[in-house]
Predict the structure.
Amino acid sequence: MKDPKLHRGIKTRAIHAGEAPDPVTGASAPNLVMSTTFVTDPDASFSIEGVEEGSGFIYSRWGNPTVDQLERKLADLEGAESCIAFGSGMAAVSALLLHLLKPGDHLVISDVSYAGTAELAKDTLPGMGIEVTRVNMSDLEAAAAAINEHTKLVYIETPANPIMRLTDVAAMADLAHASGAALAVDSTFGSPMATLPLKLGADYVIHSLTKYLCGHGDAVGGALLGSTPEMAEIRKQMLVHVGGVLSPFSAWLIMRGTATLPIRMAAHEENALAVARFLEDHPKVTQVTYVGLPSHPQHELAKKQMANFSGMLTFQVAEGKAASRVIARRVGVFHYAVSLGHHRSLIFYLGTEDMLASSFPLNAEQEAAYRDYAGDGMFRVSIGLEDPDDLIADLEQALEGV
Ligand SMILES: *Cc1c(COP(=O)(O)O)cnc(C)c1O
């Protein structure tokens, strides 16, 4: 008989996958196991080398029951064979890059990405003998030209933080694989409710769990997903030995958040669409970039590879830097703060000169493509779960001062 669990809907799986009532106490909610050590068999190994899959818990850096439950839930939602949870999104990003890339290898990475990733690729990897080419990943020809016989990994973010530019995951997977390279996708902005990169041909998926998966702005974490043999090797070398493990308490909070991901993402999308439409009609707003609007330059690609348009959007006004001081002072419902994916709405201004100076210096062609999305600077907005009318009213009164 077929396993009926495989045919359950996404809302059911978000709640039940990875979890089961506690066999000893019958507790229905997942246990929070903070124990660092576990009473073991006297024959158990003292090194991770001797530990076999399924041999039980020994020490919490090697594996923890609460973290394990979260990993199983995330693997299920992402359609992955295996998942490794890390202490932050950047721990997951660096684990993959440092594991795969050896001196002489070549990395092709988006010219615009999350600042931490961009700075790691720009400042750290070249010093380790890794050649890095940064390219506009919405331009398939540019990406194809950047890939060579030394390219080990192609790394993309879609939608890209912070400008909301998309990459065609299936086309990029074909390009990478044609040259024998692997494709990694940072899918933080969309979450598994938007896009399942592994199903589109990617080899690895990364999430900052700090964002939509946790969903409540109270736990930092990261995840890397892929095939079981590779995840087992990365777990040993880059989690157990490098040591950036996720706290069980954070795992427990993120698991609680993940259980409501499907209904939260639907609500984020609905609210974001309402706010995006309001901003598009606002006389002081010069550009709105939201993948759910027909005005997004890649709306057709968004419809093709995103089942949910998420709650992330950007908008521009004249004199954005000066406006940011006014808006930061006037908002009441929105918090003027970095990060994203929380139930609370967040807004933050990212000036183009600042971004190019600190995180990703661009050549003239790349900068022109960046400015198509970001202008001289934009407000990055993470639309939360409040009443959309309150969000619109808050932005309306804040923009009155601009
Ligand atoms: C936040 C973020 C990260 C880093 O995650 P942390 O949990 O802050 O370490 C990586 N990628 C993207 C797209 C992000 O938004």
Remarks:
- The CA atoms of residues 137 and 143 lie 6 Å apart.
- The chain has 14 helices and twelve strands.
